[in-house]
Amino acid sequence: MTGAGLNGEISSTSRLNVEGMKDPHPQKLGSLLELFDGITDQEERSLVLLGYADRFQEVAPEIARRPFPENQRVPYCESEAYVWLVQRPDGTVKLHFAVENPSGVSAKALAAILDESLSGSTPDVVAAISTNIVHRIFRQNISMGKGMGLMGMVQMVQALARQMVRATSR
């Protein structure tokens, strides 16, 4: 899959989103959202999402081992997803995920998307992403329950980034 800016540097952007409002997302995530905004065919969207699910990399054992701590578990997620943010020496973060349900394809796809598009960003940038990215990526391809779980993944990423911002501002 190719797309302008998908492997570019992370930075804030002032591009306009599809609603004509300023897009507050980092460049990699913004470019990816533009790609998904342009996919109107459900089958093509599903294939792209399956490709991301195939790229999912489970949390490394040096970050976390089973059984994973409950405080890292995403609320409402049917796929039993877990999230970790690790701050790098340069102040940026690396996102890590575990998805315990082998059928959790949507959770794995979103985890890969979030990792690839947000790792390398600063915690304040990660904390500012919007949960509306779930709708922009998945559209009508998800049930209400699955949507809650996927938004829960984004909210967990936001919350961990906000904790990191608070901890570093002391």
What can you see in these coordinates?
- The protein is mostly helical.
- The protein has a single domain (about 25-170), classed as Sufe protein. Chain: A, CATH 3.90.1010.
- The chain contains six helices and two strands, in the order H-H-E-E-H-H-H-H.
- The protein has helices at about 25-35, 40-55, 105-120, 125, 135-140, 145-170; strands at about 80-85, 95-100.
- Strands 1-2 form a two-stranded antiparallel ribbon.
- Residues about 1-25 have low confidence and may be disordered.
Using brief descriptors, characterize the structure shown.
170 residues, Sufe protein. Chain: A, 2 strands, globular
CATH names the topology as Sufe protein. Chain: A
Q: Helix and strand succession?
A: HHEEHHHH
Tell me about the largest β-sheet. Answer: 2 strands, antiparallel
**Structural shape:** globular
User: Can you name the CATH architecture?
Assistant: Alpha-Beta Complex
In short:
The protein has 170 residues and is mainly alpha-helical. It is 44% helix and 8% strand. Helix 2 crosses helix 3 and helix 3 packs parallel to helix 6.
Topology (elements, then pairings):
Layout: H1 27-37, H2 42-55, E1 81-87, E2 93-99, H3 105-118, H4 123-127, H5 133-138, H6 144-168
Antiparallel strand pairs: 1-2
Helix pairs in contact: 1-3, 2-3, 3-6
